[in-house]
Amino acid sequence: MPNNPPPIDGARVLADLNTLRGIGTYRTGVHKPTFSDAHMGSLRWLAERLPEAGLAAEVDGIGNVVGTSAKPGPKLLAGSHLESQNFAGWLDGPLGVVYALEAARVINPDATIRGAVEVASWCDEEGHFGHFLGSRSYVGALTEADIDAARDRNSDRTMREALASAGLAGRPRVTAERGRHVGYLEAHIEQGETLESADLSIGVVTSIVGIWQYRIVFTGEQNHAGTTRMAIRKDAGLAMSRFCVAVDESFPKLSGPRTVWTTGRMTLDPGAPSIIPGRAEMLFQIRDDDAGVIARLEQHLRALAADVTAQGGCVVEVERIRTGTPARMDAGFQDAIEAAARDLAGGKSLRMPSGAGHDAQVLATIMPAGMLFVPSIGGISHHWHENTADADIVTGAAVFVDACLRLLASTS
Q1: Which fold has domain 10-208+328-409?
Q2: Do domains 10-208+328-409 and 210-323 have the same CATH topology?
Q3: What is the spatial distance between Cα 374 and Cα 398, in angstroms, rounded to a whole number?
Q4: Engineered SS bond to 137: which of 67, 96, 142, 349, CB 3.0-4.6 Å?
């Protein structure tokens, strides 16, 4: 690592982020669903910037933007994503991409620094068509059949149709060259209030949760709401409600210290005021950074479903529809981020797990990976009120670039 590492340009970082904020603006945030005009405009913006950092840019057949360097020496991969949740915040994703771009601008042209930072924007981290489709493609974990099956949750159009509309059909997908990178580093807003409430500047991520999601279906008997006696009803909606209460009462006895669970959607069929629902469905999610804890809770979830079915009123079926493996962040990457925070953020850092999923957990399946967080004002994310103070953004960028320098120097 150079004795006097080159400084970042904080004004440039803020300007880049605000430029991206101006593409697909919605209130104080953005609306950039995957493959929308705003998302594609953001990808083009990045591809045009990468040559400024000595990188050859490519937008591949899944919508990833990958910038590669011909500079001799070790290569560090860095990035995040540029699409957003619907009507959401301006920093979730772009912060990590701009930090990676700034690191490449600072490090790559400097002949005194051995090695280079390569930049990536991963497509569809937000799950409009699936889960981590871009990063999964890059690590070789996404098949053509997966792409054929993927559909837009906003419109039900196929991913193939969306790729064609975006002008990406027929392009090859870029996959990782194993051994090329010393690892992958990602920055992100915390999306919680831990850092802000403790007056800290940097979160050093230790692990990323696994996310397991379920479709739970209750099948009863549809009938007239006025003529069917209460004693003989098979009300799927009532069974679902009681099931949710049973989950909330029993899960704390089996969970870990940071386990969370959420019923994100409940629907009744036919959903009319004068008809007893004969079918009900809920989407349920469990998150923890210990796969053993999630497996234990899933077993209990299925036991609760079997108990309801055995009572003879309604039949309950539990289908797991998403399995996200927890990931541990590399110890050396954690040390590099913490050392950079000690020098550039007054040591105001905290080692902490991530309760949200990130592309880093996918990259961690093939290379060492690390993440750093910056504070979120009020802990708000996935909403247009999402924000981070300019000073925290600039401090985070400085720590990120310094950590990149440390990681490249560690391979010399």
Answers
A1: Aminopeptidase (3.40.630)
A2: no
A3: 11
A4: 142
Q: How many C-beta neighbours within 10 Å does residue 130 have?
A: 20
The residue type at 32: K
CATH match of 210-323 with 3.30.70.360: yes
Tokens of 128: 């409009």
Q: Supply φ then ψ for residue 351, to 5 degrees.
A: -80, 130
Long-range contacts from 69-73, C-beta under 8 angstroms, 24+ separation:
69/104, 69/108, 69/116, 69/117, 69/118, 71/108, 71/115, 71/116, 72/114, 72/115, 73/114, 73/115, 73/116, 73/408
Domain spans of the chain, in order of start: 10-208+328-409, 210-323
Residue 100 has phi, psi (to 5 degrees) of -65, -40
pLDDT in tens, the chain (412 residues): 555 767 899 999 999 999 999 999 999 999 999 999 999 999 999 999 999 999 999 999 999 999 999 999 999 999 999 999 999 999 999 999 999 999 999 999 999 999 999 999 999 999 999 989 999 999 999 999 999 999 999 898 999 999 999 999 999 999 999 999 999 999 999 999 999 999 999 999 999 999 999 999 999 999 999 999 999 999 999 999 999 999 999 999 999 999 999 999 999 999 999 999 999 999 999 999 999 999 999 999 999 999 999 998 999 999 999 998 899 999 999 999 999 999 999 999 999 999 999 999 999 999 999 999 999 999 999 999 999 999 999 999 999 999 999 999 998 5
Q: How far is CA 63 from CA 44, 86, 116, in A?
A: 11, 18, 23
What residue type is assigned to position 51 of the chain? P
The tokens of 60 are what?
């591949």
Tokens linked to 7:
């400084």
